[in-house]
């Protein structure tokens, strides 16, 4: 069974023992042939998190009884993984019977469960979706891109918004005013005399 710490690492994005082990494998030590070996540039925070998430998901599949091969993974396995991660969440989500249901800032404590925030799950799925294809998966068979996953995330978003009294507002895309005036191909503005 997967240790609680590994689940927490992916849920929280922390850098615990599993992340150190992954870093040790990725970074490598020395090399055969000595000589002028160059280290690859360090991974960005996003790339590091994506790798950590991918390794944790792979470990989750291996810990299933019976173990699930990545080639056999489907949207149901992804949904089970998301539900599994819920136990490591830090976001208070009030139940319908709670007196604080729908209040953004409740005046006191309650026994409602802590869950993964919708935004964290959405970002996780985005990273895993990219990692799947980077690791040889075909876009048309990507379980992270399944309609069932999108529906699940939408339901989590809507239920958390109601329970926490915080309406979800879609971010509007900013328009770039320079695109309409891109006449010159130089990077220096032409000054009028």
TrEMBL record:
Basic residues: compositionally biased ranges: 167-177
Keyword Membrane carried by entry: no
GO molecular function terms noted in the UniProt entry: DNA binding
One Gene Ontology CC term in the entry: nucleus
Primary location class: nucleus
Protein family: Belongs to the plant homeotic and developmental regulators ALOG protein family.
Organism: Gossypium raimondii (Peruvian cotton)
Signal sequence, renumbered to the chain: none
PROSITE patterns: ALOG
GO biological process terms held by the UniProt record: mRNA transcription; response to light stimulus
Positions of the ALOG domain: 45-172
Protein name: ALOG domain-containing protein
């Amino acid at each position: 069974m997967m240790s609680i710490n590994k689940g927490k690492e992916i849920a929280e994005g922390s850098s615990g023992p599993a992340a150190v082990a992954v870093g040790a494998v990725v970074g490598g030590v020395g090399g055969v042939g000595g000589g002028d070996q160059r280290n690859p540039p360090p991974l960005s925070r996003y790339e590091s998190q994506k790798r950590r998430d991918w390794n944790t998901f792979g470990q989750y599949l291996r810990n299933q009884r019976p173990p699930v091969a990545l080639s056999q993974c489907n949207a149901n396995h992804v949904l089970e993984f998301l539900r599994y991660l819920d136990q490591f969440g830090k976001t208070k989500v009030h139940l319908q019977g709670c007196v604080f249901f729908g209040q953004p800032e409740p005046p006191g404590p309650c026994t409602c469960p802590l869950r993964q925030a919708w935004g964290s799950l959405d970002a996780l799925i985005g990273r895993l979706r990219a990692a799947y294809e980077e690791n040889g998966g075909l876009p048309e068979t990507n379980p992270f891109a399944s309609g069932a996953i999108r529906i699940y995330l939408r339901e989590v978003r809507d239920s958390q918004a109601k329970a926490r009294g915080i309406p979800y507002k879609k971010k509007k895309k900013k328009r770039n005013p320079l695109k309409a005036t891109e006449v010159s191909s130089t990077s220096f503005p032409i000054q009028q005399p």
